[in-house]
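Example A, followed by Example B.
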Amino acid sequence: MVLALLLSASSVLATALPEQMRASLIKSAEQSCFEGQSKQESNKARRPEVLRRFCNCFAEKMSYTMTMEGAIASIGKPPTSGEQQLMDAVLANCWLVHVK
């Protein structure tokens, strides 16, 4: 029933992620990012704490762009072009701030 309400087309306002879900998303995304970035040859010489800050930045910023409706709708689907553009912009910003 709650899921039906969240997905209701009549819902005007987007629902923010609950804090516990947001924290879990951040932790998971940060770890996944760190593992992926650490494996890239171009990052082998970078200190792990630099990559962790970069990945935390990305995970934190992306968590604020997500809503319950968006999270549910995106399960098992690749990002839309708009979502990909947003991710690319966040990645570029976090890279400039924490790595360059």
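Example B, a separate protein, is given below in the same form.
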Amino acid sequence: MNQLAGYDFIGDIHGHADELQQLLIKLGYTQEDGVFRHSERQVIFLGDFIDRGPKIREVLETVKPMVQAGHARTVMGNHEFNAIAFHTSFGDREEHSLRPRKTKNIRQHAATIQQLSDSQLADALDWFRTLPMWLEVLGPDSSPGRAVHACWDEPHMRFIEQSSGNRGAIRKEFMMEASFRQSALCQAVEVILKGKEIPLPEGYFYHDKDGHKRTAIRARWFEQPKPGTLYEEYVLQSDPITCPIEIDEKSSAEITPYASDAPPVFVGHYWLKAEKPTRLASNVACIDYSVAKGGFLCAYRWDAEQEISDEKFVWV
């Protein structure tokens, strides 16, 4: 490959292979010897390849060869992490998995199990274990850019590196500690792969897109809530919420926002809904626009600019 002219960040795919291939073609990638490639650009996938959608195997058969051939890079999504935990046992019985075999978790992962053979699933899990949880890249002028599934938080990243020895490389010991809800490692992984949350005041809750009752909101981790900001104003999610109460001082104090002069960071995860994508901040962009829930598959065409432009989003 020649010197890269830029990167194309692609958000959550969730088994929507047709849309993925349409998006790659729209971005100027062509298929040669069964692998999509571009002479001057490279894709950075933001994870969540599996679950929910109709063509999970085809997504993996598109993405993995691109990564292996050097035409793409990727970070891990929470669904890849969950899949590893679902298929990692902590006892002598398969159902004793690190991700409990509850109805909710089985339903979320069902499409992947149904669509992949045992050997295909095993191969996918082996590959997922090699994926980093975040990436930093340099544009053609050496300007930095960042990719993570849900939240860029350097203290938590440093803790994950210290725990894994290799930027979150997945070993069974790592998975066991990261799956223990009270552990600091679990909390760090939750932030990086699922974002920061703030508990709602007592008595308030909402139901998420899958109908599950939630008592905490996904927070806008890239900005500090101003005095008087309401819980319902500080959400980074598409799930509707009504909570016209000011965020309490304790919750506000726990948010250390992503610095406005930090390199641009690209995330997925948040299932946003809109007619067209827009940036979250001058240096933060979410590229997940709910393709698995009737939305569209989205990319951002990055050419090393340090201020994100709404004109650089591409979608199908």
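On Example B: The chain has a mean pLDDT of 94.
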